[in-house]
Design goal:
This protein is mainly α. The protein folds into two domains: about 80 residues, Alpha Horseshoe (Leucine-rich Repeat Variant); about 120 residues, Serine Threonine Protein Phosphatase 5, Tetratricopeptide repeat. Helices cover about 75% and strands about 0% of the residues. The chain contains 13 helices and no strands. The N terminus is likely disordered.
Length: about 220
């Protein structure tokens, strides 16, 4: 007799349907009806690549900060698609902590940082970390505003706090490296960039920075 082929989870068929019709709302609705976040986290280690991709995609839509660890580990999946979806999902779930009002305030802070309104972002982020000191992304966003204001030492401190709360926060590690680089401390910058790459090997800009710093180190030796 031929060996039996393992049955694929329904999730993978829902994912294939999403790839065909690109109806994200239907994908979210169908997954939400059938899967808990804990089950999606377990499926991140399924043997089938499509199932792992589907799990990462679904957690990006439906997961919250509880899924941080499982998604952080998925950044090292053998499949690049899984790694990319896990990174996108992580950036989403990092913002899903705290109360609804705290999440809305974080959204405002992020928009202000993107618009380079760093003083306003810093003020609101300081308010948020006072009320929710366990909210890692609040510290990271304040670090971004501090960096934009040229306060590199203070930004490093906020990045460290974000990493203390969320050890998977590759963005905070990379941001810390950028601060050290601007301060002229290439050795500390290199260590921070390496830490960011260890967390997320897909950070090509950080990889280029590491290679450049290593070349400079060899020339000086």
């Amino acid at each position: 007799m031929a060996a039996s082929v393992p049955r694929l989870p329904l999730l993978e068929f829902l994912y294939q349907q999403f790839l065909d019709d690109r109806d994200a709302a239907a994908f979210i609705r169908n997954v939400q009806k059938r899967y808990a976040a804990a089950t999606l986290e377990r499926l991140l280690t399924h043997p089938a690549r499509g199932t792992r991709r589907a799990s990462a995609l679904a957690l990006g839509y439906l997961g919250d900060y509880v899924s941080n660890g499982a998604l952080g580990k998925a950044l090292h999946d053998v499949d690049r698609g899984v790694r990319t979806m896990a990174e996108n999902a992580l950036r989403a779930v990092w913002c899903r902590s705290g109360t609804d009002s705290q999440q809305k305030l974080l959204e405002v802070i992020i928009r202000e940082n993107i618009a380079k309104h760093y003083r306003q972002a810093y003020g609101r982020a300081s308010e948020l970390v006072d009320f929710a000191p366990w909210f890692a992304e609040a510290w990271n966003q304040r670090a971004i505003s501090q960096y934009g204001l040229g306060r590199y030492t203070e930004s490093i401190s906020d990045c460290r706090q974000a990493l203390e709360i969320n050890p998977y926060h590759f963005g905070a590690a990379a941001g810390m490296g950028q601060c050290y680089l601007n301060m002229g401390d290439t050795e500390e910058a290199l260590q921070c960039f390496r830490r960011a790459l260890k967390l997320n090997p897909e950070l090509e800009g950080v990889r280029s920075a590491v290679q450049s710093l290593e070349r400079g180190r060899r020339k000086r030796s």
